[in-house]
Amino acid sequence: MTPRESVQIVDVAPRDGFQAVSTWIPTETKIDIVRLLLNTRLKRVETGAFVSPKAIPQMADTAEVHASIDLSADQRLPTLIPNLKGAVNAFAANITDVVYVLSVSESHNKSNVRRPVAASLDELMKVIEIGRDRPDFRLRANIATAFDCPYEGRIEIDAVSRALEPIVDTGIPVEFGICDTTGRAFPDQVADLFEKCVERFSRTGIDWCFHGHDTYGLGIANALYAYQAGVRVFDAAAAGLGGCPFAPGASGNTATEDLVFTFHNMGIQTGIDLAKLTETAGVIAALPGVATGGHIRQLPKKRIL
User: Fold this and answer.
1) 274, 261 in Cβ contact below 8 A?
2) Virtual CA dihedral for 99, 100, 106, 111, nearest 10 degrees?
3) Could you give the maximum distance between any two Cα atoms of the chain, in Å?
4) CB distance 14 to 237 below 8 Å
5) E runs forming strands in the chain
6) Looking at residue 26, what is its pLDDT?
7) Could you tell me the mean pLDDT of each successive run of 10 residues in the chain, 305 residues long?
8) Is 244 an annotated catalytic residue?
9) CB count in 10 Å sphere of residue 67
10) Are 42 and 11 contacting, i.e. CB atoms less than 8 angstroms apart?
11) Do residues 193 and 211 touch, judged by C-beta distance below 8 A?
12) Structural domains of the chain sorted by starting position, each given as residue range(s) with its CATH number in brackets
């Protein structure tokens, strides 16, 4: 097997996965899950969100969860923010590794964060203004509905470019999370978008991540096409948790364990301990009220490792 360039996987179960669970997950349980995920040698675990607790009650203890986790020097706990208020609250909790989310489509942005796309971009500029002087400030811009919108259908690449352009123009280092929010992206579409965006917006300080869902069973295939297009960072969720509450019918994220299994068997290293990851996925899958996905977690261990 020929070794290939390694990748980094970001587990988003404690945010994207937990936000969709209506049964309250105790804070101590969330802390335990994050610690278990970090113990698999994951370098990044997206943990919680600074959002309205009325809109997403499950995220109300994000600051407390973050404050309880000890990280090694090479591990990070980014958190999601939808607006300037979320950023201010995150910074007040000494969290400067943030994931700002906005949608390409007007309909989804208004449903998801209750404002037009232009207003989300304006607030992002303010987040950058107050964050860029902080020594530990790291920005991921998650571009939702980059391939398909539940209300408007297929999204054109030019629309994605228009969303990216003002962020690129700030000159700040940024990782773009290109999101298949509904799971309706197809492999050739994924490759085409990344190839064109990377070519157009290539500069020092810009990195790319693919955030895929497995609604139609295409999560792994889409990730591999993104890899072929040059992407080296991938979001996934242990036990296949997740799904946007504001994208009707969109089920969970691609399962982290499935993605690690696939990459490892293709000679693409992740640095993650697959045995520990599958055990952790089992713990997550046993939580009350969670909707799970994925495949290899349910196979005999001897067929996985």
Assistant:
1) yes
2) 70
3) 52
4) no
5) 8-11, 44-45, 79-81, 97-103, 138-144, 148-149, 153-154, 174-179, 206-211, 233-236
6) 98
7) 85 95 96 98 98 93 97 96 96 96 90 87 95 92 94 92 94 96 94 95 92 94 97 97 60 92 97 97 95 89 76
8) yes
9) 12
10) yes
11) no
12) 8-303 (3.20.20.70)
Tally of residues, the chain: 305
Residue partners of 260: CB distance under 8 A and separation at least 6: 9, 270, 272, 274, 277
Q: Is the pTM of this model over 0.90?
A: yes
Rounded Cα–Cα distance for residues 243 and 249 (Å)? 8
Q: Which residues contact 32 (CB under 8 A, 6 or more apart)?
A: none
Q: Which of 149, 179, 197, 244 is catalytic?
A: 244
50 half-sphere exposure, CB direction, 13 A CA radius: 24
- Residue 64 CA to residue 126 CA, distance in Å, equals 25
